[in-house]
Amino acid sequence: MDETHLNRWFSSLQKELYGTYLQYDEPWKQSGFSGPEERWVKCRKPIADCIDKSGSFLDIGCANGYLLECVLKWTAARNLNVIPFGLDLSEKLTNLAKQRLPEYKQNIYTGNGWSWLNPVRFDFVRTEIVYVPAELQRQYIERIIDTYLADEGELLLTEYRSRKDPVNLPWLDLTLEQWGLKVTRQLSGFYDEKEMTRVMVISKRANLR
Predict the structure, then answer these.
(1) Alpha carbons 186 and 46: distance in angstroms, whole number
(2) Domain limits of the chain?
(3) What whole-number distance in Å separates Cα of residue 150 and Cα of residue 170?
């Protein structure tokens, strides 16, 4: 995919994912989640539960910063000190994130996870492979591991399901195995007895090439 087509793809993604976010007042809906807050907690808390030590946490696709805010609350309950960072394509949404987390507004960036030049390396990075075209997804994950993560850092690769998705739809960990990437552990989020979220933890140390 050449640069022109890639830029068009990202522009289309931004319109598709964020075009309706700002129509809502509920913070979880401004983060792209259409369900009730109870389901948000069930489907997002596994991300925080994968953070097992104090350190820096980058959320790629942070939207209005609500997930960052929740992660801070959920990890603080376990006496962890997490420093939040956020990155999003939409300046309107990152402005909301800065308002939500004024103490950390200098850590919220507008940019593209595919090409962003990170100012520091992070202990934990959360992202989804749907943020880049299918043919670039493996390269995207490898780039995050190589350039975004600290030496002992971990990628929290997150995949979500809709209530309409079939139960037997394969999860991403099978693809990761085919790519030769080792998942060191994973956590799932369930709602109404259906797995709605899977967080696959990929340790940089376990995937050195």
Answers:
(1) 9
(2) 3-207
(3) 30
Element of type H or E holding 34: none
Residues whose CB is less than 8 angstroms from the CB of residue 44 and which lie 6 or more positions away in sequence, other chains included: 33, 67, 70, 189, 197
DSSP secondary structure, 115-176, as one string: T---SS-EEEEEE-GGGS-GGGHHHHHHHIIIIIEEEEEEEEEEEE--TTS-TTPPPTHHHH
Q: pLDDT 10s per residue in the chain (209 long)?
A: 788 889 899 888 777 767 678 788 888 888 878 888 899 999 999 999 999 999 999 999 999 999 999 999 999 999 999 999 999 998 989 999 999 999 999 999 999 999 999 999 999 999 999 999 999 999 999 999 999 999 999 999 999 998 788 888 999 999 999 999 999 999 999 998 899 999 999 999 999 76
- Rg (Cα) of the chain, in Å, rounded? 16
Using DSSP, state whether 182 is helix, strand or coil. Answer: coil
Q: Tell me if 30 sits within 8 A of 63, measured CB to CB.
A: yes
Cα separation, 205 vs 172, in Å, equals 20
CATH 3.40.50.150 fits 3-207, yes or no: yes
Q: Are 171 and 118 in contact (CB under 8 A)?
A: no
